[in-house]
Amino acid sequence: MNETTQHTATEGNPTSYGFCSWHQRFAGGVRLIDVIEQGSGAGGAQYACGPCRELHGLVPFADR
For residues 64 and 58, what is the distance between their CA atoms, to the nearest angstrom? Predict the structure, then answer.
């Protein structure tokens, strides 16, 4: 029997897993919120999970 553990992503429904910059833990469905650019050296990025985006009124970078 062929069973898959992969879920099919639907359009507009991210399935990424990463570190949420707002609640400081790993979570599913994180989206890029802000890109931190520096004049010299490495920049950074801030990601937020769905509940933190809703709680703090955050708009994903790609949706602006």
Answer: 11
Alpha-carbon gap, residue 1 to 18, rounded angstroms: 31
At 39, which amino acid appears? G
Query: Considering the chain, what percentage of its residues have pLDDT values greater than 70?
Result: 77
Identity of the residue numbered 6: Q
29 or 38, higher pLDDT: 29
In degrees and rounded to multiples of 5, residue 57 shows phi and psi of 65, 40
DSSP string, 5-59: -PPPPPTT----EEEETTTTEEEES-EEEEEE--SSS--EEEEE-HHHHHHHT--
**Cα gap 45→25, rounded to integer Å:** 15
